[in-house]
TrEMBL record:
Domain Glutaredoxin: 136-200
Protein's name according to its UniProt entry: Glutaredoxin domain-containing protein
Matching InterPro entries: Glutaredoxin, GRX_PICOT-like, Monothiol_GRX-rel, Thioredoxin-like_sf, Thioredoxin_domain
Any one of the GO CC terms: cytosol
Iron-sulfur as UniProt keyword: yes
Keywords: Iron, Iron-sulfur, Metal-binding
UniProt GO MF annotations: iron-sulfur cluster binding; metal ion binding
One GO term (biological process): intracellular iron ion homeostasis
Lineage, highest ranks first: Eukaryota, Metazoa, Ecdysozoa, Nematoda, Enoplea
Domain of life: Eukaryota
Ranges for domain Thioredoxin: 13-103
Species: Trichuris muris (Mouse whipworm)
Pfam family, one: Glutaredoxin
CDD domains tied to this protein: GRX_PICOT_like (cd03028), TRX_family (cd02947)
Length: 227
């Protein structure tokens, strides 16, 4: 039986949002900005409600006409908008009726929350799961939407210019991953770029590949570069 839309938490005040954040226990919070008068939004709500049953997310919805604070806080200019929040910070969003994009983002961010992988015995398994979440996976300080160091910003700029799809993991949010991946990859610094589960390297190598016109084929998996 499909989940009911009523399973989504309905919030309108910033105080409700802050209270909801305290219940996430590290899970991604998925915030849907919708409107009662826009009937087509019901399909997006059903999509989120079904995924909410998997217990890897906290779901909430905001009726834009009922909230004067939350839409401007998240710079919402389009209905529907789905915002993904981790540890109080926005890490991703989808604007418009893009159900496939929303499902792909849900699947991706579901893998970021892996219950039971919080001890050293399982760290290698957890790292392999994280590395394999996307064909091109980047471990960096911050996210591709908000890089938090000059090296990560430079890398994001280069990757964005290729037009290749990639995902990021913010190592500042998980010290176990941050330290564990250094040992796992035998690579002491960040960012780190993986393609098809294999380490390509850091910013310097990405720059070299870009300058030699080899980056695009490497990211597409036509070449394997391990440093």
């Amino acid at each position: 039986m499909s989940a009911s839309i009523s399973q989504l938490n309905a919030i309108s005040e910033e105080s409700e949002f802050e209270s909801l954040l305290k219940t996430t226990d590290g899970k991604p919070l998925v915030l849907l900005f919708t409107a009662k008068w826009f009937e087509e939004c019901s399909g997006i709500e059903h999509c989120l409600a079904r995924f909410g049953q998997r217990d890897r997310f906290v779901m909430a919805k905001v009726e834009v006409d009922d909230s004067s604070a939350l839409p401007p806080r998240f710079s919402v200019s389009q209905i529907p908008t789905v915002v993904f929040i981790v540890n109080g910070e926005e890490v991703d969003r989808v604007e418009g009726f893009k159900t496939v994009d929303i499902l792909n983002k849900l699947k991706f961010h579901a893998k970021l929350y892996i219950p039971g992988f919080d001890n050293s015995d399982n760290m290698e398994t957890r790292l392999r799961n994280l590395i394999s979440m996307s064909k091109v996976m980047v471990f960096m300080k911050g996210t591709k939407q908000q890089p938090l160091c000059k090296f990560s910003r430079a890398l994001v700029e280069i990757l964005n210019n290729t037009g290749v799809s990639y995902e990021t993991f913010n190592v500042l949010e998980d010290n176990d991953v941050r330290e564990g991946l250094k040992k796992f990859s035998n690579w002491p610094t960040y960012p780190q770029v993986y393609v098809d589960g294999s380490l390509v390297g850091g910013l310097d190598i990405i720059r070299e590949l870009d300058e030699s016109k080899e980056l695009l084929s490497t990211l597409r998996g036509n070449e394997t570069t391990n440093e």
